[in-house]
């Protein structure tokens, strides 16, 4: 996931999309580290949202929408890592929201599943479901390819290389924070200068 | 106070808000919903033969999906059991054994794992409950938890502190639940994001430990990173009755920097309700008396402690509920107390049964977060429910068609009797 651009169809949501709407609690019996349960989590992504078109079509495991545009406080509620994982497993690659709940943001970075992009202004009204859009991670912009409008995003800063690497552990290995391969004697994590948000 | 704990845990003389510091973790808690995923990451990243950093600092409390026929839920508890056996972990509270406790946040406190001045992380957003014990406690995801299991450390951004002061004394019809709902209504569900929420003032000092836990429990519904309260004799009595481990509390400085300080006269706060579908949709209970209910629910880490049941019993004694009312204690210790504690010579259980409530003695998270279809008290259709739990986002207690109003045990009990939302004051005269 280290390309500079993310291009795909857009799914639009409002404010305070909480973790119960992202992945309802009845599906938390699925364990994300078990491959077929990871896929299954994807099939339920955002199925708890009220009055919205399905994010993942009935009977499918993947979403046609790589980009979610939302309002304030995306991912509020539970600490369940199943939430960013469900969206990522479904094929979602980025969320573009005015703000995030702290734990959800951190879980996006730690898992490397999703780029949680912040917007300085509200963009919910700038997109309709199904619009094609492109996020430029270097320039920190999102372009609505239907309307041609280019809108600024807040830079991801130190969080980006962690997500690019595929999450906290892979990042830590690549930067020498922990041993390059899994080893039973690994005990000590050494702080480095580039740090994860939060 | 939060800064002092994080400074101590990171081996520094002082830390400032916004600084990223590596903290040494005193306790890591996980449960049946996030434990298996955490263990999966730990074994993948550190190796199948890796050992946890400190066996005495890992606490595993299955509590979410216990009393269900769902196979995967049982499989998940088996994963915990296997890990506990392989790692030789002493602090495991197994399902179906006399050690089973129930809801992790209450069990942590009751079993002596909450100690002033310490750092606690848990794979559950309501881990912030333990801030009531003057510790830094917050929720994290599986990946961070797996990192702690292997290293005993986590990178934390030091939060700035919002301080909330309550002067005087809360009126007798008011509970900590009303206070936190009032406060979330004030700051909004994201008003505390990335911040510590510190509670102080004479009215807070008068609260029991259970009530302080309710207050800190719901800081996450205001977006807060952690809640924290100064330790006093109430804290020390509770903690020393449950652990012999030494601890060192932190105290607030008179000149500490805050994002802001908000003050209330404790007397002025009214019985408060959060309307569907958000904990910050605040109204006074008396403003909602035309809302008809189809059910009531008392339980969870937020509203299923002994104080919560004693309060509900004070309202329900000698009366009948008008709607289906589900009660489930947070822990087995509380289940036991419901059978033995009395009010006017009657046990709490007898009061509830005579009132027509459906009481489960199977302590767990139950329907607070919906759960598997066969979960006790789960909302499976277009119910209108008043509940002592913590969240009312769409579908939180099960069906998306359900509507959940959040309130104190007094208000829930009074509303159950009337069949519509009711200010409890008239029942407590």
Overview of the structural elements:
The complex is a heterodimer of chains A (198) and B (429). With 198 residues, chain A is α/β, with parallel strands linked by helices. Chain A has one domain (5-157): Aconitase, domain 4 (Alpha-Beta Barrel). In chain A, 23% of the residues lie in helices and 16% in strands. Chain A has helices at 19-22, 35-43, 82-90, 102-111, 159-165, 168-174, and strands at residues 5-12, 67-69, 94-97, 115-118, 132-136, 141-144, 150-152. Chain A has a 7-stranded mixed β-sheet with strand order 4-3-2-1-5-6-7. In chain A, helix 4 (102-111) packs across helix 5 (159-165). The longest helix of chain A has 10 residues, at 102-111. Chain A is globular. The two termini of chain A are 22 Å apart. In chain B, the strands form 6 sheets. Chain B has a 5-stranded parallel β-sheet, covered by helices on one side. A 5-stranded parallel β-sheet of chain B has the order 18-15-14-19-20. In chain B, 60% of the residues are buried. Chain B has 2 domains: 2-243 and 258-264, Aconitase, domain 3, CATH 3.30.499; 273-427, Aconitase, domain 3 (2-Layer Sandwich). The mean pLDDT of chain B is 97. Chain B starts with a helix and ends in an 11-residue tail after the last helix. Chain B has 429 residues and is an alpha/beta fold. Chain B is 30% helix and 18% strand. Chain B is globular and about 55 Å long. At the A-B interface, helix 4 of A face helix 2, helix 3, helix 5 and strand 7 of B.
């Amino acid at each position: 996931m280290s390309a500079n651009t993310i291009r795909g169809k857009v799914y639009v949501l409002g404010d305070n999309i909480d973790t119960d709407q992202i992945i309802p609690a009845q599906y938390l019996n699925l364990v994300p580290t078990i491959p077929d349960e990871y896929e299954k989590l994807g099939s339920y992504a955002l199925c708890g949202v009220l009055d919205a078109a399905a994010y993942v079509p009935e009977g499918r495991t993947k979403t046609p929408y790589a980009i979610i545009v939302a309002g304030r406080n995306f991912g509020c509620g539970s600490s369940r890592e199943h939430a960013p994982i469900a969206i990522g497993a479904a094929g979602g690659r980025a969320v573009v929201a005015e703000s995030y709940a702290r734990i959800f943001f951190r879980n996006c970075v730690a898992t490397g599943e999703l780029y949680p992009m912040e917007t300085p202004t509200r963009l919910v009204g700038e997109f309709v479901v199904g619009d094609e859009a492109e996020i430029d991670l270097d320039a920190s912009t999102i372009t609505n390819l239907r309307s041609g409008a280019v809108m600024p995003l807040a830079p991801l800063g130190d969080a980006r290389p962690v997500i690019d690497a595929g999450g906290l552990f892979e990042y830590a290995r690549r930067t020498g924070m922990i041993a390059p391969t899994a080893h039973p004697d690994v005990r000590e994590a050494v702080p480095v200068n580039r740090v994860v948000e939060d | 106070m939060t800064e002092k704990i994080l400074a101590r845990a990171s081996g520094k003389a002082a830390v400032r808000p916004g600084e990223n510091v590596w903290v040494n973790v005193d306790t890591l808690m996980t449960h049946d919903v996030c434990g298996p995923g955490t263990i999966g990451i730990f074994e993948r990243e550190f190796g199948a033969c890796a050992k946890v950093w400190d066996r005495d600092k890992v606490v595993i409390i299955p509590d979410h999906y216990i009393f269900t026929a769902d196979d995967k839920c049982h499989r998940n508890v088996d994963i915990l059991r296997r890990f506990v056996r392989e790692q030789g972990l002493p602090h495991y509270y197994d399902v179906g054994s006399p050690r089973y406790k129930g809801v992790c946040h209450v069990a942590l406190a009751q079993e002596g794992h909450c100690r002033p001045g310490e750092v606690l992380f848990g794979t559950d957003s309501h881990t912030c409950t333990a801030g009531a014990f003057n510790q830094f406690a917050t929720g994290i995801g599986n990946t961070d938890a797996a990192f702690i299991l292997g290293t005993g450390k986590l990178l934390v951004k030091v939060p700035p502190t919002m301080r909330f002061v309550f002067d005087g004394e809360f009126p007798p019809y008011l509970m900590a639940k009303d206070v936190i709902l009032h406060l979330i209504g004030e700051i909004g569900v994201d008003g505390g994001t990335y911040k510590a929420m510190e509670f102080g003032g004479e009215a807070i000092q008068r609260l029991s430990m259970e009530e302080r836990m309710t207050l800190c429990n719901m800081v996450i519904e205001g977006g807060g990173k952690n809640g924290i309260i100064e330790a006093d004799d109430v804290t020390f009595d509770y903690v020393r009755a449950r652990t012999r481990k030494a601890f060192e509390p932190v105290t607030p400085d008179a000149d500490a920097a805050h994002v802001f300080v908000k003050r209330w006269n404790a007397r002025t706060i009214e019985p408060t309700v959060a309307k569907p579908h958000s904990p910050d949709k605040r109204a006074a209970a008396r403003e909602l008396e035309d809302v008809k209910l189809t059910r009531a629910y008392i339980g969870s880490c937020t509203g299923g402690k002994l104080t919560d049941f004693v309060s509900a019993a004070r309202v329900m004694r000698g009366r009948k509920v008008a709607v289906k009312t589900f009660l489930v204690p947070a822990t087995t210790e509380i289940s036991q107390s419901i059978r033995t504690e009395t009010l006017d010579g009657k046990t709490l259980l007898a009061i509830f049964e005579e009132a027509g409530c459906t009481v489960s003695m199977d302590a767990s998270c139950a329907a607070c977060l919906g759960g598997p279809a066969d979960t006790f008290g789960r909302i499976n259709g277009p119910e209108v429910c008043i509940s002592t739990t913590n969240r009312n986002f769409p579908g939180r207690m099960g069906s998306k068609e359900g509507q959940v109003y959040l309130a104190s045990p007094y208000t829930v009990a009074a509303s159950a009797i009337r069949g519509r939302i009711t200010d409890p004051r008239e029942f407590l005269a």
